[in-house]
Specification:
Largest sheet: 4 strands, antiparallel
Shape: elongated
Strand order of the largest sheet: 4-5-3-6
Helix content: under 10%
Radius of gyration: 27 Å
Structural class: mainly beta
Oligomer: single chain
Number of helices: 2
């Protein structure tokens, strides 16, 4: 069995180790107010949705659906654009103590003889209600289980046995 090794130079302490919540970018929204007529080149079905129009187009209010359109509109004279990015909090398993990457060796497919990096080998799962199977799949010829078996080195074993300075 081949062992996919951890790159010792890549090991570092995770500054967020053991945290169980993260803030991620959520949805974006933008509104505009235009004093005067808007240029005709905007896609009024997909980019800009007009919600209110006063005095035959002298003042227009609406919603902008794309960030690049919001940037473009904010450069127009007489147009005020307000943008807001919402943030979401997600809860998850504790983050790992270490950050690291692997050194991916190339394996040879026994069917088509192509050389494939381990991280490019596909996987398929099959569950027949009695057993759960996982197959490796060659990305070139789609053959199942045509590579030598491999396993990934465990970071805890590396840290216990070698104690690299990080």
């Amino acid at each position: 069995m081949i062992t996919v090794k951890i790159d010792r130079e890549s090991i570092s302490r995770n500054p967020n180790a053991n945290k169980t919540l993260s803030r991620v970018a959520g949805y974006w929204e933008a509104h505009f107010v235009a004093e005067g007529k808007l240029p005709d080149h905007f896609d009024f079905e997909n980019d800009v949705i007009i919600t209110t129009q006063y005095f035959d187009g002298v003042r227009t209010e609406g919603i902008i659906s794309r960030p690049d359109t919001a940037d473009e509109m904010s450069l127009l004279p007489g147009v005020t654009v307000k943008q807001k990015r919402h943030w979401e909090t997600i809860f998850h398993q504790p983050l790992p103590k270490y950050l690291y990457s692997y050194i991916y060796p190339n394996l040879i497919c026994e069917v088509c003889k192509s050389e494939v990096p381990v991280n490019k080998i596909d996987h398929e799962n099959f569950d027949d209600d009695e057993y759960f199977y996982t197959y490796t799949v060659c990305p070139n010829c789609k053959a199942h289980d045509s590579f030598e078996p491999y396993e990934f080195e465990n970071i805890n074993t590396v840290m216990e046995n070698e104690k690299p300075s990080i």
